[in-house]
Amino acid sequence: MTTKQNSNPSERMNGKREIPKKKDFLKWVGIIMMATLPFLHDLITSSGEGTNSWVPDLGIEKFLTDEEGYIVGYSSYRIFLYNLLLHLSIHLSFLGWFLDAHGKSYRAALLVPVGVSFYQLIMILTNARFTEYNSLTSKFLVVLVLSLLLGVNYFFYGRDKRQKGIT
Known about the structure:
Elements: H1 9-13, H2 22-36, H3 41-44, E1 45-46, E2 50-51, H4 60-64, H5 77-100, H6 111-125, H7 136-157, H8 159-164
């Protein structure tokens, strides 16, 4: 049961509070979860000890470990998880902003950081951090090409939709 939203401050002071809607509450929970996502590595692993005993052994750490003992190029599973979850949090935040910006003029531009953050996640997961694909030149070209493609698509092909009011 939600109360009628009232902009009159005197009625709110008299004990009537606006109850948040379920959709708003889920947005709050999602934002909080994305903000704490990078720190899940503290729950999964212990510093200097590896995976915590209560975490089920699914073989992920062994699967990601190469013959030299590195986990996808990182010195420990804990560091790998922190970097992966940090970049995943950033990617999900940009993606959420993109999805929420429906009908806004800057929505197409948000695809650039979504694409770049996804590219960085692929670099982490494929152990391509020390290759040419992760160099500054490659990343700059990805951003430049993605920006140009989105700009051309938005300004030339999206014009009919904008004129009709469909975005």
